[in-house]
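Task card 7
Instruction: Convert sequence to structure tokens.
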Amino acid sequence: MKILTNFSLTFVFFGLIFAGCTSAKSQEMRSERERLRAAHEDARRKTDSRPMEEDLTKRLLGRWQFLNVEATEGDLSEEINAIKYELHATARENLTLEFFMDQNVYRRYRGENGGTEVTGSFKIDSRRYGDEMIPYLRVFRDTGERFPEFISGTPPNRLVTKDDVSVQFLPLNWLGISFTEDKLELTLYGVMEMTPSGWAQSRGVLCTFKRIE
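Output:
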């Protein structure tokens, strides 16, 4: 009987050790699964552009008055550039843009400049260059002239050839978009170029607007 009791105690002892090891192993596996799940969620949030695109869409809605147009980079002298874009700005003093939701579903735009009107739809989109997600305004014309020419008087600069493998051309209906306080900045980019610091946008035409509604 004593031998049986000792055997039972030994069995219970090793059973407790085994259960403890099993419990610790299960906890370790659960912790690893949680770590991997958290890392996956963090990576997904960093690559998910939808929150940024939705926020920019909300900020864009309303009416905007043209303020200025200027070259961000070009091959002409500064003096010629200044005269060129001053003329474009003068011709657009009364230009306004309106971005709105049609039936709370369709994203629409309307532009007016004197007797000229343009209409169409829009979408905020983005592209990733390296670790940076860059937002763009995409416009789809219905009536009137093309959106880039309407707001700036000039199409994006296309002086760089496609033979240069360090250059990526953006579609003509993709415009860089950013906000500063109550101002809207739309940039017509011709190219994305690889520089020593990474991808950079250049040869652009910057159009600035102020919110009026």
